[in-house]
Structures are given as C-alpha cells and as structure tokens.
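pasting for the record
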Amino acid sequence: MPTANRSMTLAEVAEIIGARLIGPEDAVVCGVGTLADAGPEEITFLSNPHYRKALAGTHAAAAIVAAEVPEAAVAQLVVADPYSAYAKLMRELFTPMREAAGVSPDARVDPSATVGPEPDIGAFVTVGAGCVIGARATLHPGVHVGAGCVLGDDVTLHAGVVLREGCRFGSRVTIHAGTVIGADGFGYATGEGEHRKIPHVGTVLIEDDVEVGANVTIDRAVLGETVIGAGTKIDNHVQVAHNVRIGKGCLIAALVGVSGSTELGDFVVIGGQAGLAGHVRVGNGVRIAARGGVTKDIPAGETVSGFPAVPHREELRRQAALTRLPELRTRVEALEKAADAEARGATGGTA
C-alpha cells in the first residue's frame, strides 16, 4: 500500500472523522488498506455488510464501521457513513505536503502579471500579460495561462494544462493534466457554400472547489460565459461546449458530452458516455444514466436513461419488451403459417 504523508493515533483518527473509538487510543497508524490486505499499522473500512465476515480475519490496526461488530478482533471506529469517513481520512493521510518553491527560473511570467504569495510555479510554465494569480498557486511544468486570466487562491494546475485568455477561476480549483479550458467552441454559420467561423469572444468562469479531470475540454462562450458551478466534479475526457452553464455540486463521469447553451441545475449526476443536445434545460437533482441521450428538457428530480432519454422505469419496461422480440417474432411467424394453411384449406388449396 502507498505510504502516507503522516502518521496519527487512533484517538486523532476518531476526532478527524467524528467516530466513536472502541480500542486503544494511543495505537499509531500510517496507512490504509482493504480488509484482505491491510497491515498492523493500517486502517480499513466496512461499508457493505456482505464483507462482514472478512472483518474477523483482517490484520488491520482498526476498521471504520457503521455499527459495532462484536466478533471483530481489531479496534473499531464507529461512524454513520464509513465510506465517507474513510475518504475524509484518506485526504488527511495522503494529501501531498505542498512546498512553496517559488517561480522556476525556467518559467516565463509576464512582467505585468501579478503572482500571490507562496507560489510553486514549475519549469516551462508561461503566464501571460495582465494575469492575476492568487496565493499558494501550484502550476506544474508546461502549464500555459493565457493573457488576462484570473485565478483565486490555492489553485492547482497539473502538467500541460492550457488556459486560454480571459478565463476566471475561484479558489481551490484543481485541473488535471492535459485539460484545455477556454478554447473556441464549435460554432460556424453555413451559407453561400462555406462554413464561416463565428468568433468566440466570451470566457469561462470556474467557481470555487471545482475539480476537472485529465484531457477535458471546456469551451469559451460565444458571448458571455461558460460556467462551471462551485463544488462540481468533472471526470476525464469530458466535452463542455460553448455557453454551457453547469450548476453547483454536479458529478459528471467520463466521456460525457454537453452541447452548446445547455443548462444543468445543481447536484445533477451524469453517467459515463451520456450526451446532451444543445439548448436543453436539466433541473436540480436530475440523474442521467450512463449512455443516456438527452434531447429535451428534464424536470427537477427525475432519473432518466436510454436514447432518447426517458424516465428510468419507462426505459426498463422498454428494454424488457425488447428482450421478448425473438419470442414474439416466432409466435407471429407461426400464426402467419397457421392462417395461411387455413386459408388454403378453405379455398381448396388454390389460395
């Protein structure tokens, strides 16, 4: 298992995750592991009752559980949501210790740009004219920040990220390697035998606490802003087109495509490979299943699936009906043969 950046006592763990500790307060842990693989200085967790028997044989120092397990031979940290508590502990143990290394001599920061205190700006980073970079920014090697960009505090841009001119970020935004934000959208006017490019003179606004995966593209608006709301998390290989507005706290899985001018409400969840047509409105709390195709507005709170996307129960009925098609075809063919035979018999075989 990977080595944590720090060690802590079980008493400290209990305080961090808000758990009731059953076991020695001074026992020290320095890592995490699965029920099967965790060692005597690591913590594991049990969130699925199906694996309860495995808890009896684990070698972990302690387990995070939803309720006390009397037969367990390890210390227990009892908390309402073990998986969420485990994630919180992982962040405490494994979040890298940040070093304020300053600005690399191999970086190019325009003299008109402003860089906040305690930066860590790596080699071959370029920061354009008029940029404002907040405190404790971490820009890994090869990042390009275009002219006029504004970044809040504690922003992390991983290697190869490109921000085109004029993008604006809130605080605690993380963008993973290879992502491009603020490129022109796919906008052309077709006429007189040619496709004329529509200039995209808007920008992209990414609010606080957003995390964007690797190789994502978020296009700038034609006019105004493409917006990613606070707390939204976007997986790898997602395409967000021009003038899209994504609400707060959304979860968007890999390979999703959101077409231009579509609006998502708050806390929308979209499964992998789903696609959304342009200019549709998706209400708060909507859940779109993997590979769902959204072609029209969806009211708040709905769960939809299929293509075109319909309420999930309706799609399940549709899929169930499809599985019966071979049987129905056989029955129809048999009925046709019987009807044909009956017709020939009624006409003396001349039908």
